[in-house]
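Hey,
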Amino acid sequence: MIGVVAVGGVLGACARYAIALGWPTAAGGFPWATLVINVAGCAVIGAFLTVLTEAWRAHRLVRPFFGTGVLGGFTTFSTYAVDVQRLMLAGRAAAALGYLAATLLAALVAVWAGAAAARLVIGRRTR
């Protein structure tokens, strides 16, 4: 089980790193890449877990590999926290607090939207 999560985590972290390299944040700049990564990951988590619990009886290693490993490695609380700290240290307290709140709100909405979208797709396939 640990190996499955670890392999998934490596894949997710590599994907996140590639996006961050392609969309770097300038010193003191707003961390758009991390925000988008976390929100997108939350949407996928919402959809994935909805499909797993409501429509698909997957192999027992799928959830730890993809849910915990890939998506856990892709989304990032640590980078989010460091980004907030960097904005604060750059004297951009309003941006830091906005980022802090916007990420939380957008992530929650993304999980809900991902789950809702999955339910729409599941509903269409079962009719």
